Structure formats: structure tokens, C-alpha cells
Amino acid sequence: MLPSMGRTMVTFLLIALAPAWPAGAQSRSDRVPVLAELFTSEGCSSCPPADRILELLAIEPPVDGVDVIIMSEHVTYWDHQGWRDPFGSVTFTSRQQKYGEWFKLESVFTPQLVIDGALQLVGTDIAGLKAALAKSATKPKPRLTVAIRENGPQGLVATASGPAVAVADAELVWAVTEDNLEVEVKRGENAHRTLHHSGVVRWFSMKKLGDSAMPASIDIPLRAEWKRNRLRVVAFVQSARNRNVLSVGAVSVQAQPPRDTPR
Description:
- It is built from four helices and 13 strands.
- It is of the alpha+beta class.
- The N and C termini lie far apart (60 Å).
């Protein structure tokens, strides 16, 4: 896809993604939280429109009744095209491959959206996305509350709490995401383009829920180059049996009150 075609597609998709209800008609606390995982890469010319769609999902979902929690997981198998994605990780490549096995796909691809671990589609499929979100909205989840506190100058302690999930095999997954990232791509399919990302997963951890009884806490390291006012801590419970997301929550790092200054 040529860069100019990419911009045209973004414009078309933004129109198609326009919400069907008045802005602010429903508070976030009244909506069903839905996890949207985008598998993407800066080496893929078809990915920028999907990156933009993911950002819009978090701002104002196109389906009433949902609050979309976004995760942008950059894979590594496009790096051979001449541009190494600075956010790429083999962890996400492996995670996508496991989804591919579960969904019985012949091969993985980008951009791919996975909604609540239960549905997968091309990241620019607006009709499919709306249908997936609408289906997820009909399945209320036990509330998962995520709280954080400072843990030294470069760290946090995060706690997830909520009703126990009656599933024998489940995992508690943690992530730190960063919004409003911008990269000037020098080589590869997106050469000479400035790409924008939100929900980029900067840190990822996964534990068996049996090893992390609710409420569960974890130490999270923060790197100096991450902008704290753009970070969110995401936690979700995922079935190891069918990969469905059973409960999900998130909190903005900037929303936390500052620590008391010692006297």
C-alpha cells in the first residue's frame, strides 16, 4: 500500500468508525469493559490505518455499552524488511502465534485485532469490529479494579481485585501501555513516514491465577524514557482453556495522587 493510499484509507475508516450515539451518552463506569489487542508492526504498510482505529476505540467506541481497553502488541516478523520495529517483541510474536493456533488460522498476519480473546479479524474491518464489540457488550464481566502506588523513583506496585472467577485454568495478565508515541520510519514498507501509536505495550507479565489469588499485586518497573503521563496499567483474567477474557480493568498512571512529601 502506498503512503498516499494509506492516508485515504484512514480518512475513509474514520468516517465509517463514527459512533452511532451522542458523545457522552453513557459513562465509562456503566459500560462493559472490552479488551482489544492489535497485532501490528511498523514494517507493515497496511498497519497505520489499524493503529489509528485502535486509538479511536479507546477515545470513543463505535458501539454503545462498551469501554474498550486497548493494547498494541508489535510483532517482530516484519523486521527483515529493513526496519526494526522499536516496540517489537518476540513475546508478542509468540502470543499472536498461540492465538493463530487457537483460531485455527493457516498463518498469522498484521494488522490483526483480537477482541476479548474470543474473536479475531483484520484490524481495518470496520463492520467486523462493530459486530465483535456488540457481541462482547452482551457478555457482562465481573469487575476487575486496578490500583497502583509508587514503588521508588522508577517503579510501581499494581493491585488487581474483584470477584473470584470460577475457572480452573486461568491466567492473570499484566501490561503497561503508552499512548501518543511517534516514530519517523527510515526504511522498509513505511519508509519516510511518521507513524503514530497508542496503547503500545511496554511491559508484559503473565501468571497463573492459582499462583496469584485475588487481590493480586505485582511490582512494575518503569523505564526513564517512558512518559508517565501517557502510561496505563492494564490487568485482565484470561481463560487458558479457550483464551476468552473473563475480566479486565485499567488505570492511568497520571491519575494517581502524588506521594506525600516526608516532613
